Structure formats: structure tokens, C-alpha cells
UniProtKB/TrEMBL annotation:
Protein name: Abi family protein
Any single Pfam family the record assigns to this protein: Abi_2
Cross-referenced InterPro entries: Abi_system_AbiD/AbiF (IPR017034), Abi_system_AbiD/AbiF-like (IPR011664)
Length: 317
């Protein structure tokens, strides 16, 4: 189908929203947000306030709905703006945690593998055979070479000038992104994965492996300024058995919570407290969640929409 929606000025965009029932108490401020943030970025935050209609039933009998163009009663433009600003600060807090986790993991991986081989990232024998077969190791190695070649860091230039292009793992690891670090962990032999997972208080190395993969997904959302607070998580983490990590028990058997981002916040909390034992990051995040914005709209949203389980504060701080 050919795209047939015409270009609209900022004023036309605002008028369209008002015609659909979105209240605007300050048109100057609303136009300013449309100009600086954009209609479609903000639309992710007024979407929950749209009216939904039933269009059928699923095979299991659950109602199927779709959003209409109309907003529920009393919805204000500022409701979406406040939600957008809350989500922006949430992403910044998560990026703070993810940086600490990623940097610590780089050190752990490089230190463990580098003891065996200065160029451990090039030595196939150090990794699980399932990743060596079928070209998976080569694809990962190519990605890492590309990241290394794109690096503009002075220390990379220094090593190349003095030692050539083959860099020791404890140097080259600093050019990798979270995805490359996560994949390196997944390629390691079980004993190595187990040792590092145990350092982070997780005896289940497969669960820990999935945590890193999911945190990379979270990192990409944050880095690209994507909506986070009520996101349906595509790359969902695994959990250890009940009773292994007490805080995980609140999520076990709750697919509706595992599919939401709060579990990733909780994983970040667990890891950051091990990386930085004196941190107050988790307290700052809890304080931010407590400031979830209120709404004029009769459609009331809350921190529960992040997938926060009941009584989460009892184990958070």
C-alpha cells in the first residue's frame, strides 16, 4: 500500500491531537515539545491513553483489541510529556548501571582468559567446541576486529604503533561493546562461565549467560533512546531455581512479569551491588520509580506497568 498521510505542520499535528480528544492546557509548551521531541516519539507515551476496542477473540478466548484514534476522557498532552520525561531519566539511570557492569565484566573476562594466552580472543582452543564449529567464532572475531578498527582511542593507536595490530586481550577488550562481551562469555567453556557467574552470586551459569544477553538488549534500548518503562521485553532472561536467589522467586512462574523490564532492573541491581558494594544506585532507582508521574486521564498508569511484583520494596534496598 502506498503511504498516503500528508506532511503536517506542528500546529496541524497539535490540532489533530486535540480533535481526537487530547486536552492541551498550554499550546505554546505543547508545540515546543512537538518541535524538539517529535510527534512519533511522543506518540509512544500517549498511546496507552488511547481508547481500545475489541475486534475478536484469540484461540484461547482472550479478547483481541486495537487502539482507536480517540483518547480516553480527561487525557492531557502533559500526561504524555511527564511519562516521556520519567522514561528518559529511567534510561539514564539504567545506562549508569550497565556501564559499571560492562566495565567489570571486561576486566573479569580478560583477566581469566589472558592468564592462559595473551591473545586469548584469537585462540579457538579456549572456547566451547559448539562455537568453534560452523563459523560462529569467526563471525564473532570479525565483529571484534571491526570494533577495534573503528576505535579512535589514543591507547589503541599507541599499541598499534609500538606492537602492531594484534593487541592483547586486556587491551582489545576495551574496544568491545556489551554485545561482544556478552557473546564472548557465551563462547567460553562451562568451567570459565561457572567461575565468573559464581563471582556475581549466581550459581546457575546458564541463567547468568541469559542475563548478560538480556542486559545487552536493555543497553541497546537505552542507547537508542527507545521507550523503556512498559516495554515488552523480546530477549527475556532465565531465572535460577526457586530458593537459589530469594529475590528471583517473585518472578518465577510469572510470565507477565518476566516479559516486562522491571526484572532487568532487578538483575542490574543484583550485579551493581556486587561490582560496587557501597553503591546507592539501587536506592536512586527506587526513588525514581516512586516518582512515577500522576495523570489527569481517567486511564491510570503506574509503576506496576513496568512489571514490578507485589512488595518489591521489601527486598530492594
Amino acid at each position: 500500500m502506498a503511504y498516503d498521510r500528508p506532511w503536517k505542520s506542528y500546529g496541524d499535528q497539535l490540532a489533530l491531537l486535540q480533535s481526537r480528544g487530547l486536552g492541551v492546557s498550554d499550546e505554546t509548551a505543547a508545540l515546543d515539545y512537538l518541535e524538539r521531541v517529535g510527534y512519533y516519539r511522543l506518540s509512544a507515551y500517549w498511546y496507552p491513553f488511547r481508547q481500545f476496542e475489541e475486534v475478536g477473540r484469540s484461540h484461547s478466548g482472550q479478547p483481541l483489541t486495537r487502539a482507536t484514534d480517540r483518547f480516553v476522557d480527561d487525557t492531557q498532552f502533559v500526561d504524555a510529556v511527564r511519562l516521556y520525561l520519567f522514561d528518559k531519566q529511567l534510561r539514564l539511570l539504567m545506562m549508569d548501571a550497565l556501564e559499571r557492569i560492562e566495565v567489570a565484566l571486561r576486566v573479569d573476562l580478560a583477566h581469566r582468559l589472558g592468564e592462559r594466552d595473551t591473545f586469548a580472543h584469537l585462540n579457538k582452543s579456549l572456547y566451547h567446541p559448539s562455537f568453534v564449529r560452523g563459523g560462529r567464532f569467526e563471525r564473532w572475531a570479525k565483529r571484534c576486529r571491526d570494533l577495534q578498527n573503528r576505535s579512535k582511542e589514543d591507547f589503541i593507536k599507541h599499541y598499534r604503533q609500538r606492537h602492531g595490530d594484534d593487541l592483547p586481550i586486556w587491551v582489545v577488550v576495551e574496544t568491545w561493546d556489551f554485545g561482544a562481551v556478552s557473546m564472548l562469555f557465551a563462547m567460553m567453556k562451562v568451567a570459565d562461565q561457572q567461575a565468573i557467574a559464581t563471582k556475581y552470586g549466581v550459581r546457575d551459569w546458564l541463567a547468568f549467560q541469559s542475563w548478560l544477553r538480556s542486559l545487552n538488549y536493555l543497553r541497546n534500548l537505552c542507547a537508542h533512546h527507545s521507550r523503556l518503562w512498559n516495554r515488552n521485553v523480546v530477549d527475556q532472561p532465565q531465572l535460577p531455581d526457586a530458593g537459589v536467589l530469594s529475590w528471583c522467586d517473585a518472578f518465577i512462574g510469572r510470565p507477565e512479569l518476566i516479559a516486562r523490564p522491571f526484572l532487568l532492573f532487578a538483575i542490574a541491581r543484583h550485579l551493581v551491588r556486587i561490582v560496587c558494594p557501597e553503591t546507592r544506585w539501587h536506592e536512586r532507582l527506587a526513588e525514581h520509580l516512586d516518582r512515577f508521574p500522576g495523570q489527569h486521564s481517567v486511564c491510570k498508569l503506574s509503576v506496576d506497568d513496568t512489571g514490578a511484583p507485589e512488595h518489591w520494596k521489601s527486598w530492594w534496598v
